[in-house]
């Protein structure tokens, strides 16, 4: 069964499936003027593309994601998803947060069903059940549907969170540090789950992450945000690894080292600069360091 049964996608291969234009988020401050967290943030996302959004803590990554989700009011500028300007949350966009926040009195099946019923109230009971079961199976919980959150590990709970999101059959999947609380093995497993789902369902996705390896491994483009306030897109780096991606060959590819080095160099050196967005392909990457400098920098960033 395909998750597109109820609502077939019509905007295939749209190069500007998501258009974020001159986006601003400003909060009023006690002095009567605005604290502009994000300003002139511009980004177009292709249908089916996977974007990773990376930047220093507090620069405004989650702010951009929640505005795209429709959960945070847009102060200025706008966001178009599939030819429609967004003005609030909608089933075309689903979010997976760091904590899955499951209803403790409902089973995994019940938690996923909750969203399906509200988004597809007119689908038959059999169709709703089929969507829930399918979503739980593709995240690897086919045998644990009847379990309650307290009977599930942190990783399994996050799988339910992912199933709940994809069961809504969104066009855009938004991931806000979804693996931040998980151990590295579970994190890798869930990265693979997400990559598989996106390939299968042709979903467009954006992940906010602090993990440079994750940003490179998962994405088609890494978008690096400049430091706030007034944060915007500092640089964009295209990741030229074929899909489907195989973890071992990606991590052993010399380009992987160069991509992550470039991201780290941005975080260290350029993230305060705001101006014209620089776009990098594998042929024009800059900012290389030698291995010792890189190790030094990684240690510094992990302490910060
Ligand atoms: N309701 C609010 N009122 C005022 N300022 C806010 C509000 N919500 C967020 N901010 C500010 O917006 C800025 C960006 O926050 P945001 O959570 O988007 O950053 P982030 O890059 O996702 O951070 P992190 O990586 O640490 O999660 C921060 O300086 C934060 O203090």
TrEMBL record:
Pfam families: ABC_tran. GO terms for molecular function: ATP binding; ATP hydrolysis activity; nitrate transmembrane transporter activity. InterPro entries: AAA+_ATPase (IPR003593), ABC_transporter-like_ATP-bd (IPR003439), ABC_transporter-like_CS (IPR017871), ABC_transporter_ATP-bind (IPR050166), NO3_transporter_ATP-bd-like (IPR005890), P-loop_NTPase (IPR027417). It is found in: Cell membrane. It is a peripheral membrane protein. CDD domains: ABC_NrtD_SsuB_transporters. Keywords: ATP-binding, Cell membrane, Membrane, Nucleotide-binding, Transport. Residues 18-252 form the ABC transporter domain. GO terms for cellular component: plasma membrane. This is Nitrate ABC transporter ATP-binding protein. It comes from Roseibacillus persicicus.
């Amino acid at each position: 069964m395909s998750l597109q049964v109820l609502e077939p996608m019509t905007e295939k291969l749209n190069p500007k499936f998501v258009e974020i234009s001159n986006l601003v988020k400003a909060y009023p401050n006690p002095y009567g003027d605005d604290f502009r967290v994000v300003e002139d943030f511009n980004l177009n996302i292709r249908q089916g593309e996977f974007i990773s959004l990376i930047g220093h803590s507090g620069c405004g990554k989650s702010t951009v994601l929640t505005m795209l989700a429709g959960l945070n009011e847009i102060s200025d500028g706008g966001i178009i998803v599939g030819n429609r300007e967004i003005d609030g949350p909608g089933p075309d966009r689903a979010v997976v947060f760091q904590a899955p926040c499951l209803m403790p009195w409902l089973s995994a099946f019940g938690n996923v069903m909750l969203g399906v019923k509200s988004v597809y109230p007119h689908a038959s009971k059999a169709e709703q059940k089929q969507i829930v079961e399918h979503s739980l199976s593709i995240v690897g919980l086919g045998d644990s549907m009847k379990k309650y959150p307290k009977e599930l590990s942190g990783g399994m709970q996050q799988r339910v969170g992912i199933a709940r999101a994809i069961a809504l059959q969104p066009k855009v999947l938004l991931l806000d540090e979804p693996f931040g609380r998980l151990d590295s093995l579970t994190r890798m497993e869930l990265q693979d789950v997400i990559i598989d789902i996106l390939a299968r369902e042709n979903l467009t996705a954006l992940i906010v992450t602090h993990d440079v390896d994750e940003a490179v491994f998962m994405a088609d483009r890494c978008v690096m945000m400049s430091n706030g306030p007034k944060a915007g897109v500092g640089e964009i780096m295209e990741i030229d690894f074929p899909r489907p991606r195989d973890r071992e060959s990606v991590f052993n590819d010399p380009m992987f080292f160069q991509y992550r080095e470039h991201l780290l160099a941005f975080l260290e050196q350029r993230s305060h600069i705001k101006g014209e967005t620089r776009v990098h392909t594998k042929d024009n990457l800059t900012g290389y360091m030698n291995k010792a400098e890189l190790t030094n920098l990684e240690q510094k960033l992990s302490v910060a």
